[in-house]
Design brief:
By secondary structure, the protein is mainly alpha-helical. The chain has six helices and no strands.
Length: 140
Amino acid sequence: MNFIGPLAVFWFLIFWVVGGVLFSIIALFRSSKIKKTQFSCLFTLLCAGCAYGAAHTGMMMGAEEINVCLEKAVGWTESFSAIIACGVFAMMISGLAWFILLFVGGSLLLLLSRSKNQSWIDGKVEEDEMKDKTQKLIIE
């Protein structure tokens, strides 16, 4: 069962890309400014932890089925294929559960990474509103 590392890398790439896109969209529509560097670093660490958890949990949940398939496998590639083929249900359930945890953790990180400064978009909107009010006063 030394295949947790490659499975964790697989889950990390999935979680990091899908979660990153999801949280980028969420951050785009939020009105508050986000500390992007802080969120990115913490989210990457969270993805790594969740990926390891998904790989480990999936291997433990599907241990019986995987062991039966591993007895027939010869070589590294057949062993890895046997783990994926025989443990696919356990791996998917585990991955989904850990992705939900990643989403909850990422949402908390998004809240913690809020900046107290006003975003440049908000500043620009307020500046434009002030110009419009000034122009209306001048016209009247």
